[in-house]
Design goal:
Layout lengths: L3 H5 L7 E4 L5 H12 L4 E6 L10 E5 L5 H10 L5 E4 L14 H28 L4 E5 L11 H19 L6 E6 L18 H14 L3 E3 L2 H8 L5 H15 L3
Parallel strand pairs: 1-2, 1-4, 2-3, 4-5, 5-6, 6-7
Helix pairs in contact: 2-6, 3-4, 4-5
């Protein structure tokens, strides 16, 4: 049985967390692990929030592609000190050469929407002691997958590094979570090795606790990061070989 003294020693004890995309597989795990790690309150944000049946979870309506919805969310969650930018889309028909309207839709969520949330809540984090911004990225940002999803995550990876400089003066910790395929509904159509949501979220929260700037949450991502200084003439042939093997039937 967890005692009060045990709870006070939990790594997120007393923190107020907001998770975007909380209805999804990874978002759900971020909410549940935040509670297990001692969070005082968790705002579970989604376009259509679900019921959590937990007094410490507050469902929050939030469409990150709507500036008005983000402003409303800020007014409803003024006590947040840990913001988890998790909401994203990855359409199964995604192609970098696809219709421009579809490319814009993906960027509007994965880049502009997530950046909108980060900028809107930055003053809230500052007012609550600086706090933490955790951006959920993807190792797809580092490889030439021919998708708008990969391009949008590459853009948001760059923005995450920029936000780290931008928010340094207010004492905000900015963490980028880099990971490959995760066993969630978003990746259900891919028959490839996947990390468990529990493992990814656990590593992310450990990074928040230890003051990490970047969390590499699987072996593929860690290996990929180690190769990023390889000459392009060597890196791209290697990467294309890996991608073909990874997505082979």
């Amino acid at each position: 049985m967890t005692t009060l003294s045990d709870k006070l020693e939990l790594p997120l004890s007393g923190r107020t967390v907001l998770v975007t995309g909380a209805n999804g597989g990874l978002g759900h795990e971020f909410v549940t692990q935040a509670l297990k790690r001692g969070a005082r309150k968790v705002y579970a944000a989604a376009r259509t929030p679900k019921s959590w049946n937990d007094a410490n979870v507050q469902p929050l309506p939030l469409d990150i592609t709507s500036a008005e919805a983000v402003i409303r969310a800020v007014s409803m969650a003024p006590d947040v000190d840990l913001l988890i930018n998790n909401a994203a889309i990855a359409p199964s028909s995604d192609s970098i050469s696809g219709p421009e309207d579809e490319l814009r839709r993906i960027f509007e969520t994965n880049f502009f929407g997530s950046l909108r949330v980060a900028n809107a809540f930055a003053p809230i984090l500052a007012a609550n002691g600086g706090g933490t911004l955790l951006n959920i990225l993807s190792s797809a940002a580092w490889i030439s997958m021919p998708t708008a999803y990969a391009a949008s995550k590459a853009a948001f990876w760059s923005a995450t590094n920029a936000l780290r400089f931008e928010l340094e003066g207010q004492g905000t910790q900015v963490v980028g979570l880099m990971v490959g395929m995760i066993d969630t509904p978003m990746a259900a159509g891919y028959d490839v090795p996947k990390s468990s949501p529990a493992s990814v979220v656990s590593q992310a929260y450990e990074g928040v606790t230890t003051g990490a700037l970047e969390v590499l949450a699987d072996d593929l991502t860690r290996d990929l990061k180690s190769r990023l200084n390889t000459k392009a003439e060597e890196f791209y042939p290697w990467m294309h070989t890996q991608l073909r093997a990874f997505f082979a039937d």
